Every structure is written in structure tokens, then in C-alpha cells.
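Re-run with default settings, no changes from the original entry. Doing this only to confirm the output is reproducible before filing.
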Amino acid sequence: MSVLTLFVITQPYNKFAFSLSSMLGEKEKEFVELAQEFSFSKTLLVSMKGFQQSDLEALEQISSKLSALDKISVLEFKTTPRLRAYKEKYKFYLSNLEYKNSNDVDIKKELNTIYDRLVSSSLYFSIDQQDPLSLFKKESVHKDLMLKNGHLSLGEYGYLAIFSLKDIATANSRVKLYNEIQTILNTHKNAKAFSPLFYYVENSKKTQNDVRVIVMTSMLFLGILYLLILRNFYLFLNVLTTLATSILLAQVILTYIFTSLSIIALAFATAITSVSIDYMFHHYLHNYYDQKKGFNRAVFYGFFTTNTAFILISFIEFTLIKQIALFSVISLTIAYVHFAFIYPHLAIKYKKPFLLRSYNTTLSLSSTKIVLLSFIVIVVSLLFVTFDFNVKNLDYQNKKLIADEKFFSSKLPQAKSSAILITASNINELILNSKMVHSIDPTAFIPMASLLSQTEYKQQRKKITSFNFSTLKEKIKIDSQNIGYKAKYFNNSYSNDLLYPTSPTYTQKLLKEFGFELINRDDLFITYTTIKPSKLNEVLNLNFTKSASSKTIFEKSLKKVYDELILYGSITLIFIILTLAIVTKKRFFSAITYILFPMAFILLYGVFTPLNIMHIFMSFVVLGIGIDYGIYMSEQKLSKNTRVAILYSLLSTFAGFGVLILSDINSLYSIAITACIGILAILFLLLFQKKAS
């Protein structure tokens, strides 16, 4: 009751997270969340097929309704008044001065050319009064957006409208906005739309419902299973209390360790309780509660090795694995303490449980043959096993949204680019860094790169000063009058205001008025851009750039985690083998099969299906479970109840993890299929391996 009260007070379920970013380490998670603050991750694309007037009118109706919502506005590609004023002030400094000295310019020839055009042109011909000789050349601007009849278009599919979403930082605001958008879109059946927001809402809802059903089904199924097997209602009630206590208390403790908990950890927590029930079976079926036989060493060794395996794995810097591992350590420890030290004092009377019939098999394999077969399968499988680094494959596979995203990205040129974050310790440095990225990919749209850095200002000022514009302006005045221009026609040319403006200073407020997106976080200034794939690796090699693509961040993180998982997994495996050798002694060869045989078949599965991070993680969990059974089956006095206890434990574990196979969330399915393969391999050994002599 005290644990339940603590659970209600702390309410750890309010900290459950449904997004993929909850699986990442803190640094990677920070960059994913930073990227989500920029407009490219908060856009809504809507298109209506066709280019008829009716199609355009339908899209305009949708745009009008969406724009009426508080959190949606049409994304405009216009220069703000403040930015226009800035570009006008530094017009000569944002362009290239193509001559070193005024003497290099043939002023008379240039003025004659302009005069001839003015006189001979039948249409209005204008000249730039500020730079009539075109001494300053602007860089060409690359534009990706496609237009059709003066409107944005989605390739040859139809007209396109792009919207910006704002103030959707909370889960409730995202769900509310999603529902409002869907209500409007549903009135136009031919409208096609996509937004990253859709993934968050739909996948979160699916994950939440999936986990709720799995947890309830698992608890119900395990409850019925334990009641039928034990046929001891008093023990059954105590077991349920222990399991509930271990799960609830683990959630409360983890709440103080992590800022948020992945909902997938909860589903795993329910399944891991089916492993802890193993400690009860081996105490109860060997009559430790009724006869008070003392300390059960075999169960302690099993608990110790399994728990140590989870502790070692918890050092891996992948938040989901860390949470699951720590959840398991806490849950298993609480359950073991209950079953080993509290239950002997609860006056639990032994009642003969439902026993499986004795079995005889014609097939009986020696430990030598099984070890040899396992080694062959492991070696061969390692040559062909493949890995899956795409973290999105761990999530719910929303086929409709995946298809919609692919549809828009295939028709939008800029959608093929990869988003990156550019960082710096101050704004001037951020401008320089942006320009360096732009030099690698000139097609990249980087607003910050269009600004004038302090270094560029000084260099351009030096060039302009040495150019001798005073002499140039005097020559223009004399030559223009000789050619026939009106007096004072070029009086505004090359004014001192444009030639010698004050040095630019930038603030975050000013850049916001320019319409630029800039984040200041932990003494870092951050902006973003999109890079074409062929230049991505070169740009990411710069020490001030970070990928803003969740896919890239996840893949990089996963590759690092795979290395850590192999490292800590190998340490875990060595520890398990050493423990097994110490505990089982002469029967080590027989006990090691409970590690090698399941490992062989999990790797064989990896030959046909790429293994993701959860497959590998669960394989070490299976090894941790396998050592328990290896220890139990290598006892010198192996009783019939030991086999029965293991069979019940396997049945319980199979039920606990097997329910996860019903999930549409691939991470849970991966856990389930790995557990099922491992459990079936252990069951095979239990049925067909010769007893150690």
C-alpha cells in the first residue's frame, strides 16, 4: 500500500515519452530537439492535384481556413523591411568590386554605352543611379521553389501551399492543432498534405494504445497462468503484490534518474517480471517456504549473474537501453528480495501444483554435439549477419505517412536536401561559419551567409578606400556633360553613405527583425540550412556543424551504441562464462550450452533479418536468462521439480515476452522475437540434452 501511495504522489506516468528522441542520449537528444525549433521541422505542406482554376480555388479555400487558426500562418518568402534597409545600406559591401583602381575603368566608354541605350531604347530603360557603371557585382541567388502560373507548385502534380506551425512545444498543443488541421483537410478529399507533426501525433497515439493493450494483456495472461499453475490463491495474491511492487517502485525510482521515460520501457518492465517469477518457482517447488530450508544458492547465483549483466549493459549511452537495464535491475532485485527473504516468513503452505506429465524423447543429444553445432552455426552466421542502423525502423511503421512523406520529397527539390545546424560562440563567428558552409555548397540557402562579417567589412572598406572614388566621380561629372547628359544626372552616384557606412553590429533582436532564425543556447548561437546529399559529409566534417536530420543523428548514435553494446556485451558474456565455470565446475560443458545454443539461433535469425539494436540488446538478456537455467540444470542432485520449475519459468517468460510480438512497434516486436527464439532454444535443450553425469 505504501508503494502504491508513493506511486500516486509522484505520478511517474506523467513523464512517459512517446517520441523517438526519448531513445537517444542527452547530447543527441538536445540536437534533435534544437532542430525541431526551426521552421523546417514545423511546416505543413498542402497540395491540390491539377492546375485548373477550380484546383487553385480549392487550395485557396483550404489556405484561408488553415490561416484562420491561431497556430498556423502561410509561409512567406519575402524580404522584411528591416533587411531591405540593411541590404541597401551595405549594398557596395555585399557585392564584389571588380576593379582595383578607378584608372582601370574606361568611364567615357561606359557612359557612352548607357547614353546610346537611353536614346535608342523604345521602352523605358533604367540604370542604377547609385552604381551606374556596374562596378559592384552581386552574386546570383539560387532558387529551388517551383512556380506555375505565378503560384507555388508541387512539380507537375498541382498547386502547393506551405504553412508555418508555431507554439506547438507541448503534447496537448500538438494534438489539438493536428485535430484542427485534419478537420479542415477532411472537407477536401482531393487535398494531399504532410507535416512532421502528423508523425508525432499519430505514432504517439498508436504507441500509447499499443503499450496499454500489451501491458493489460500481459498482466491478465500471466495472472491466469500463475493461478492455474500454482493452485495456491494465497501465494498467487502475494506474487501479484510482489510483481506490482517491483514495477511501480522501479518507475518511481527511474523518475528521479531520468527527465522522461520511454513508454517502451514500461512494456519491457511488464515482460521482465515474468523472468523474476523464476525465483519464486525454484523456491516454492523445492519447498523452501514451507520447510524453511534456508538459503537457495542456485537461485542467488542465477539472480546475481542476470542482474550483473543488466548493470553492465546499463553503462551503454543509449537512453532506451539504459532505462530498460536499470528498470530490470531494480525490478528483479525487489522481486528477488521478496521471494528469497520475505516469503519464507509469510507462512505459505506448499500445495502440489499442476505438474506436467513426465516425458520421454527418442532424441537425446550430448553436450559435446550441441556445443559443436552451436559453434558451427555461430561462425557461419557471423559471416552473413546484417545490421539495421535506421532508428525509424524501431518505431511504429506508419505506412500512410511514410508514403505521403516520400511523395512530397520526390517532387520538391529542396526536400531532397539534408538539414544541418551551424553553431558559433558569437554572431559574427556564426556569419563566417555560414559563409564557409556556403562556399562548400553554393546552392545551399543560408540567410546568415548573406550578411556582412566584420572581416569582410574591413577588407571591402580597404578596397573601396584605395579605389579613389573621388577621382572617379569627378571624371563622371566632366565626361557625362561632354556626352550630353543633364547636369547633376550622376550626383547620387557612389555616395559617401554607401561607400563608407559604419561597421555593422548584430544582435539577436536585429536578426529576428531580418526574418532569420537563430537560437541562443548555452552560450552557443545556432542557425540551420539544408545541404545537398553529395556535400553533406564534407560539411559535417567541420567542427561547428551538426546534423539536424533525426535520421542522420539516430544512425550516428546507433553506430556508436552498437560498438558500446558489443564492448559491454562481450564483458557481460565473459562474466557470465566465468561465473558459470566457477559455479558449475565439472558440469560447465553441459551448462555452457544454455548460452551458446540460444546465441547460435539468434545469430542465425540475423542472417535472414537485419538485426537492430533491440535484437542485440535482447540477445544479451536471453544469455542472462540462459545462465540461470544452466546453473539449475547442472546441480549435482537434479530433481524432477527443477525441470518442472524451469518449464514453468520458460512458459512464464514466453508468455511475458511473447505478448510483445503482437505489437506494431518494431522495437517491441524485435524484443519479442529474440526472446521467443532464445526461449525455444532453451526448451529444446531441456527436452533433448543428455543429463550431465
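The first strand starts at residue 16 and ends at 17. The domain at 41-78+143-194 is CATH 3.30.70.560 (Alpha-Beta Plaits).
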